[in-house]
């Protein structure tokens, strides 16, 4: 049945299909505004993240959320609602529809902490003192009764808490966000430890590739150091992503892994610009070629097999951390995190080859060189040494024997000129020398 010439109804009440664009939208009335007395109408073609509705189901899901939030926000019950009820019934269900499952699983711990601290308190009763005390708690050491978080993590957690109250204001549960009256926790500049080329050489010298498992660990460390891929990007690599003949590695996936048997290989990277193709050096190609042949001896190495695997299942991030710790200790170098290998790659390119910001940005999959500079600018310190060496002696010091200009200034300037002039004849004591 047609509602007009340009739209068509669907099986969902209030959801329609735009016949011109082929996309879906919702349109509904939610009742009468109690203040203005006007009808409250809602219409949208996109969800909260700005994505157009490609299916009627997606549009109906958003319409259902909008209706639920409106009715809950405009009911008397919201005046008695506790913070925990708001989080469990409103905020968290909506948040889960807006982010990836991996993101939600990471943030869930912070949400639980918010509920533990503010859960029994009425949403409207959270005051400026409560927020200030929480801020102080986040920045206080654990042995003094605080959370013991780093400043960077405390900044992240406090910002997340403020956003929960922002949502409450948007939905009209609160008139204002009381947390905005308290100063945000500034982020500290975190310097990620990394290995220099010398340290990396010491590490790989400790690995015996005659052992199948150690061979895998060697390949993992080598590829991460030589390509700078993110940990989850590397874990998601299949052999179909690597062209050994053209010496190219395609980085188009990330691995979301709950366990080695419960994982998802997502068809995207951390950012849109993260999808990239990386050139491989001959040594890396040779190492990968030999590893694939080694895998084939145990029935692996097919196009849809993981590059980093010994049994067909993906590796987990904690394994990489343990491998780094083990061989760093054996080599007598500082242990680093898995993401430290990405920083090691950046350091290697900057300090060994003085690579440009633009090239490094493209290789690392950053959306702009600004991000590269923000994270790695400290690594360029000393990178201009080679330039200084080339500058040495490039311009020969040759000055005039006599002045070619006349000064018309005052007497003091003329005196200074005379004082600074070299003697026209050698001093008495120097005659005949």
From TrEMBL:
Signal peptide: none annotated. GO terms for molecular function: DNA binding. The keyword DNA-binding applies. Coiled coil: none annotated. It comes from the Bacteria. Transmembrane segments: none annotated. Residues 190-390 form the Tyr recombinase domain. Keywords: DNA integration, DNA recombination, DNA-binding. The keyword Kinase does not apply. One of its GO terms (biological process) is DNA recombination. PANTHER family: PHAGE INTEGRASE-RELATED, PROPHAGE INTEGRASE INTD-RELATED. Belongs to the 'phage' integrase family. This is Integrase. The lineage of its organism: Bacteria, Bacillati, Bacillota, Bacilli, Lactobacillales.
